[in-house]
C-alpha cells in the first residue's frame, strides 16, 4: 500500500438545475491509492454565499483552485458592490483550469443562483473547457450515470424531486464505483439561500445484489435471498 | 567574423551534469544513499476539552533504525503542535519554517496564532513543491475559534477530521480509532485511546517502534508528555557492565547531558543608560 500516492478523490459529483435553483451532490470518499484516507470528506466547497463548487480529481489541485477562486471572487464582490454571478465564478475557475492545464488534474462543477440568470450549472472538466448545462456529472463514478440521467432527468423539476434524483444517482454510482463511497452530501441553492443536507450510508437505498443489512453474520437470514435477475 | 562562445553560468533550475555519472555508478552496483525517514505512526483526536496528538519515536534509514527515540511532535505555536511523517529533514524544515512565520505573524497582529493559519502556510508550501517535499503532517491545536485537527498530505491537500492517523502505521492506528472513538472523550480516555492507537502501530508496523509521545492541548494550556509510555525497554543489558581493558585506569568521569537546560534568572532591574 502506497501512502505516498497523491491524494485523489475517486468521486461522484453531480449538479442539477431545477425550477428555482440548483442542487449539487457528491459522495465523500478520498483515497490515497487503495486506502480510504477520508471517508467523510466534503467535496462541495463554498466560493461565495450563492455559488458552490463540486471538486473531483486530485485533492490538492482542486483545493488550491477553489481557494484561489474564493479569494478572487471576494475581491470581485468588493469591487462590484454586489454578489458575484455564477457565470463569473465559473469563468474564474475555467481560466485557472485552462491556463494551468499541464499542471492540474481536476474536474469541477460550479453551481449557484444569482438574480440575473437564476440557477445555473457549469461543468469544467479536465483541460479547462467551460460548458453551461442543465445538469452536469463528473468524477469516476459518473461513467455509471450517463444512461441513468438520459432516462431520469426532466426539465422543470421541483426542489424535492431534484434532490431525490441527485441522492438516488450518487447512491447508484457508489454501489458500482469502488472509488466512490461514504455518505451523500447535497447543497441546495436558490433565491432563499443555501441548504446543506447529509444522507448517511445506512439511509441510502440498496440496489441490485446488495445485501440486506445484518447485525451479525451469525443471524439466520429470514428472507429467502436475492431474487434472480429478470431479462 | 568568428563567433565568441562564453561559458555562461546556469540560469537556474536543475543541473543535469551529474546524472550520467550517477547512472554509471548505479550500473556498477553503488547504492544511492538512503535518506532518513520517519516510518511512523502519528495520530490526533479531538476530545471534549481540546486536541490530543500522539506519535511513535522510531526514525529509520532504509532498514536500519537510526534513532530509537526521536521527537516527531513539533512545536508550531504555544497552542499548536504538529506531528510529522515522511522524510525527517522535510518535516523538521517545513514545521520550523512555518513555526517562525507564525511567530512573526503573532508579532504583527498581536494575537494568538490560529490553527487554520498554520494549515494554509503549510499547504501552500507543500503544493508549490508538488509533493517533492515529502512531509505528511497531523496538525492540531486550540485557538479562539475552538479545537481543530487537520491532516496535510505531501501534495498539499488537507482534510479536517475529528480523528486522524498518518504514516506507515496509519492503518493499524486507524483500526483502533474506528472501533473505539466516540465524541466527548474525557482527557484520560483520550490519552488512553491515543496510546492504544500508537502501540498498535508500534507493534504491527515495521516502520514504527520504540516509545509513545503524547501532547495534550486545551484552551490556554498544553502538556507535552514526552515518552509517556515506554513499551520497549532495553531488557538485554549485560550484567557485567562495561569495563575498560586491563591496563586502563579511569582518572575522571564527567557526564554531559545532551540537551542543555537553560535557566532564566529573573533580572533585578532593567538596564539604564
Automatic annotation (TrEMBL), chain A:
Q: Which domain of life is it from?
A: Eukaryota
**Which GO molecular function entries does the Swiss-Prot or TrEMBL record give?**
threonine-type endopeptidase activity
Name of one Pfam family that matches: Proteasome
One GO cellular component term noted in the UniProt record for this chain? cytoplasm
Location of this chain's protein in the cell: Cytoplasm; Nucleus
State the Gene Ontology BP annotations.
proteolysis involved in protein catabolic process
Reaction catalysis annotation: Cleavage of peptide bonds with very broad specificity
Sorted alphabetically, the keyword list is: Cytoplasm, Hydrolase, Nucleus, Protease, Proteasome, Threonine protease, Zymogen
The residues responsible for catalysis, as annotated, are: 11
Give a short account of what the protein does: The proteasome is a multicatalytic proteinase complex which is characterized by its ability to cleave peptides with Arg, Phe, Tyr, Leu, and Glu adjacent to the leaving group at neutral or slightly basic pH. The proteasome has an ATP-dependent proteolytic activity. Component of the proteasome, a multicatalytic proteinase complex which is characterized by its ability to cleave peptides with Arg, Phe, Tyr, Leu, and Glu adjacent to the leaving group at neutral or slightly basic pH. The proteasome has an ATP-dependent proteolytic activity.
Quaternary structure, per UniProt, is:
Component of the proteasome complex.
Annotated family: Belongs to the peptidase T1B family.
| Protein name, UniProt field | Proteasome subunit beta
**Species:** Dillenia turbinata
Automatic annotation (TrEMBL), chain B:
> Might you report a single GO cellular component term?
cytoplasm
Key words, A-Z: Cytoplasm, Hydrolase, Nucleus, Protease, Proteasome, Threonine protease
Where does it localize? Answer: Cytoplasm; Nucleus
Residue numbers annotated as active site = 40
Q: Which Pfam families match?
A: Proteasome
Matching InterPro entries, A to Z? Ntn_hydrolases_N, Pept_T1A_subB, Proteasome_bsu_CS, Proteasome_sua/b, Proteasome_suB-type
As its record notes, the protein acts as a catalyst of:
Cleavage of peptide bonds with very broad specificity
GO molecular function annotations of the record: threonine-type endopeptidase activity
| Gene Ontology BP annotations | proteolysis involved in protein catabolic process
**Purpose of the protein:** Component of the proteasome, a multicatalytic proteinase complex which is characterized by its ability to cleave peptides with Arg, Phe, Tyr, Leu, and Glu adjacent to the leaving group at neutral or slightly basic pH. The proteasome has an ATP-dependent proteolytic activity. The proteasome is a multicatalytic proteinase complex which is characterized by its ability to cleave peptides with Arg, Phe, Tyr, Leu, and Glu adjacent to the leaving group at neutral or slightly basic pH. The proteasome has an ATP-dependent proteolytic activity.
Its subunit composition reads: Component of the 20S core complex of the 26S proteasome. The 26S proteasome is composed of a core protease (CP), known as the 20S proteasome, capped at one or both ends by the 19S regulatory particle (RP/PA700). The 20S proteasome core is composed of 28 subunits that are arranged in four stacked rings, resulting in a barrel-shaped structure. The two end rings are each formed by seven alpha subunits, and the two central rings are each formed by seven beta subunits. The catalytic chamber with the active sites is on the inside of the barrel.
Q: Which family does it belong to?
A: Belongs to the peptidase T1B family.
The name on file for this protein is Proteasome subunit beta
Amino acid at each position: 500500500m502506497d501512502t505516498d500516492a497523491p491524494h485523489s478523490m475517486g468521486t461522484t459529483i453531480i449538479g442539477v438545475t431545477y425550477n428555482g435553483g440548483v442542487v449539487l451532490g457528491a459522495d465523500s470518499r478520498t483515497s490515497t491509492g487503495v486506502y480510504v484516507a477520508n471517508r467523510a470528506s466534503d467535496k462541495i466547497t463554498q466560493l461565495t454565499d450563492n455559488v458552490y463548487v463540486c471538486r473531483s480529481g486530485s485533492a490538492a489541485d482542486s483545493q488550491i483552485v477553489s481557494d484561489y477562486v474564493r479569494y478572487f471572487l471576494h475581491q470581485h464582490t468588493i469591487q462590484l458592490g454586489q454578489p458575484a454571478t455564477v457565470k463569473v465564478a465559473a469563468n474564474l475557475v475555467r481560466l485557472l483550469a485552462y491556463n494551468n492545464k499541464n499542471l492540474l488534474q481536476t474536474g469541477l462543477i460550479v453551481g449557484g443562483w444569482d438574480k440575473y440568470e437564476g440557477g445555473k450549472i457549469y461543468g469544467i472538466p479536465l483541460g479547462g473547457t467551460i460548458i453551461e448545462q442543465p445538469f452536469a456529472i463528473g468524477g469516476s463514478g459518473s461513467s455509471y450515470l450517463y444512461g441513468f440521467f438520459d432516462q431520469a432527468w426532466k426539465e422543470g423539476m421541483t426542489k424535492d424531486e431534484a434532490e431525490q434524483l441527485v441522492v438516488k444517482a450518487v447512491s447508484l454510482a457508489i454501489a458500482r464505483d469502488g472509488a466512490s463511497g461514504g455518505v451523500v452530501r447535497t447543497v441546495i441553492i436558490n433565491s432563499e439561500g443555501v441548504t446543506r443536507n447529509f444522507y448517511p450510508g445506512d439511509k441510502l437505498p440498496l440496489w441490485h445484489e446488495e445485501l440486506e443489512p445484518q447485525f451479525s453474520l451469525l443471524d439466520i437470514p429470514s428472507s429467502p435471498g436475492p431474487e434472480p435477475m429478470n431479462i | 567574423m568568428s563567433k565568441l562562445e562564453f561559458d555562461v553560468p546556469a540560469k537556474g533550475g536543475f543541473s543535469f551534469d551529474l546524472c550520467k555519472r550517477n547512472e554509471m555508478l548505479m550500473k556498477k552496483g553503488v547504492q544511492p544513499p538512503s535518506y532518513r525517514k520517519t516510518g511512523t505512526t502519528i495520530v490526533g483526536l479531538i476530545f471534549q476539552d481540546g486536541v490530543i496528538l500522539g506519535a511513535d519515536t522510531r526514525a529509520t534509514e532504509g532498514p536500519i533504525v537510526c534513532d530509537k527515540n526521536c521527537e516527531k511532535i513539533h512545536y508550531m505555536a504555544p497552542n499548536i503542535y504538529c506531528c510529522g511523517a515522511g522524510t525527517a529533514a522535510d518535516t523538521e524544515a517545513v514545521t520550523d519554517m512555518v513555526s517562525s512565520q507564525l511567530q512573526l505573524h503573532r508579532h504583527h497582529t498581536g494575537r494568538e496564532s490560529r490553527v487554520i493559519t498554520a494549515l494554509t502556510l503549510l499547504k501552500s508550501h507543500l503544493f508549490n513543491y508538488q509533493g517533492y517535499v515529502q512531509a505528511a503532517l497531523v496538525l492540531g491545536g486550540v485557538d479562539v475559534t475552538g479545537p481543530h485537527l487537520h491532516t496535510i498530505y505531501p501534495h498539499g491537500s488537507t482534510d479536517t477530521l475529528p480523528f486522524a492517523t498518518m504514516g506507515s502505521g496509519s492503518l493499524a492506528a486507524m483500526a483502533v480509532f474506528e472501533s473505539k472513538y466516540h465524541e466527548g472523550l474525557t482527557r484520560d480516555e483520550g490519552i488512553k485511546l491515543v496510546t492504544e492507537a500508537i502501540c498498535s502501530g508500534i507493534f504491527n508496523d515495521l516502520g514504527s517502534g520504540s516509545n509513545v509521545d503524547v501532547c495534550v492541548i486545551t484552551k490556554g494550556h498544553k502538556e507535552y508528555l514526552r515518552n509517556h509510555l515506554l513499551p520497549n525497554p532495553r531488557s538485554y543489558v549485560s550484567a557485567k557492565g562495561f569495563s575498560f581493558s586491563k591496563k586502563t585506569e579511569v582518572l575522571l568521569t564527567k557526564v554531559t547531558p545532551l540537551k542543555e537546560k537553560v535557566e532564566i534568572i529573573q533580572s533585578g532591574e532593567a538596564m539604564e543608560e
